[in-house]
């Protein structure tokens, strides 16, 4: 089966309710992460016509605050297919009068699963028929093919402080007894924010997820151990590194890991943290890339014709 990238598009719209927002009145990052994974899972499942596993979520930026009563529109596309993996772009936008700025963007890699739960050929491909589709296909094929070493990465040896444990319940799952990636991200956003608050008690908002690798599946009945620590503090932002282990009848195994950036909004706007700290020198590089990308994303808007990401690529 062959479909143009444009033909894979899936749209979902949501209304923001009071229980979705933090004390500042802006949307909790965990809800947004869950909804982005929903939008990505739908478009990947639709193409694969089978179960798909979320394996990797690349830098995901929150570029526009969202408040109660906002209408948020999500659009997702399959932008590249390899043997058994499906690369997906998800964008969300928020209505502001007659304009719709980009609220978030996420790039995800899913893997098609066979009946036995193992990766299986997708059996479908996407092609480009317009200029923006060619731009995205060329960009994402290059990006995806450069990712292999990151997807296979085990976290470096050495533990971070253990922040908490969770028991995986049936309501946390997606297929059979596998924990849903959107639900894990929902919990991780809260736990990483707690790591930030343990470092300094402030009001933090999630600015970005700087990558997360879903290395192994987590099953119902597993106990998840979340380790997290602040590894970088800038003027008003800090990064939390986290590692996730699952413990159960199959022993203790490393299942996921990544980084999230939070901004101190205690003063109602980005507020100095009062001390700078660099535990992980790579965090500086992640921050520079993230800041540049978020700036580029703030300059593009919803367009009926194409993803905002295409406009951003043209400008860069
Ligand atoms: C929708 C959801 O939320 S699902 C629930 C959350 N996600 C999960 O539980 C997934 C946990 N991770 C896993 O189960 C495994 O790491 C998998 C299925 C992603 C990959 O399994 P592996 O045994 O490494 O697969 P294998 O070596 O056969 O490679 C198969 C494909 O997976 C890709 N792959 C391997 N690891 C990853 C990863 N972490 N992220 C994305 N793709 C990956 C490979 O590049 C290969 O792609 P290709 O066929 O297009 O070239």
TrEMBL record:
GO terms for molecular function: long-chain fatty acyl-CoA hydrolase activity. It holds the Pfam family 4HBT. Keywords: Hydrolase. One of its GO terms (biological process) is acyl-CoA metabolic process. InterPro entries: Cytosol_ACT, HOTDOG_ACOT, HotDog_dom_sf, Thioestr_dom. GO terms for cellular component: cytosol. This is Acyl-CoA hydrolase. It comes from Thermoproteus tenax (strain ATCC 35583 / DSM 2078 / JCM 9277 / NBRC 100435 / Kra 1).
């Amino acid at each position: 089966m062959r479909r143009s990238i444009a033909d894979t598009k899936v749209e979902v719209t949501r209304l923001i309710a009071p229980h979705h927002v933090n004390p500042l009145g802006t949307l909790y990052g965990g809800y947004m992460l869950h909804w982005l994974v929903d939008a990505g899972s739908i478009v990947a499942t639709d193409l694969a016509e089978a179960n798909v596993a979320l394996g990797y979520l690349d830098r995901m930026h929150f570029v526009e605050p969202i408040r109660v009563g906002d209408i948020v529109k999500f659009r997702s596309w399959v932008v590249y297919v390899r043997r058994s993996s499906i690369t997906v772009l998800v964008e969300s936008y928020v209505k502001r009068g007659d304009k719709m700025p980009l609220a978030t963007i996420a790039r995800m890699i899913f893997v098609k699963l066979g009946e036995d739960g193992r990766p299986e050929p997708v059996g479908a491909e996407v092609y480009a028929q317009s200029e923006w589709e060619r731009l995205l296909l060329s960009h994402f094929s290059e990006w995806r093919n450069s990712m292999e070493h990151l997807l296979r990465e085990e976290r470096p040896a050495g533990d971070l402080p253990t922040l908490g444990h969770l028991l995986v319940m049936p309501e946390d799952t997606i297929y059979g007894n596998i924990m849903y990636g959107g639900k894990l991200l929902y919990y991780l956003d809260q736990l990483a924010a707690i790591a930030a608050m343990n470092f300094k008690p402030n009001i933090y908002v999630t600015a970005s997820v700087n990558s997360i690798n879903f290395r192994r599946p987590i099953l119902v009945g597993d106990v998840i151990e979340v380790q997290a620590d602040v590894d970088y503090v800038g003027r008003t932002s800090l990064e939390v590194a986290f590692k996730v282990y699952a413990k159960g009848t199959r022993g203790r195994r490393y299942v996921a890991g990544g980084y999230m950036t939070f901004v101190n909004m205690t003063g109602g706007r980005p507020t100095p943290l009062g001390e700078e700290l660099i535990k992980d020198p790579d965090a500086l590089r992640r921050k520079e890339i993230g800041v540049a990308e978020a700036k580029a994303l703030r300059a593009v808007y919803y367009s009926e014709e194409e993803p905002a990401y295409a406009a951003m690529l043209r400008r860069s």
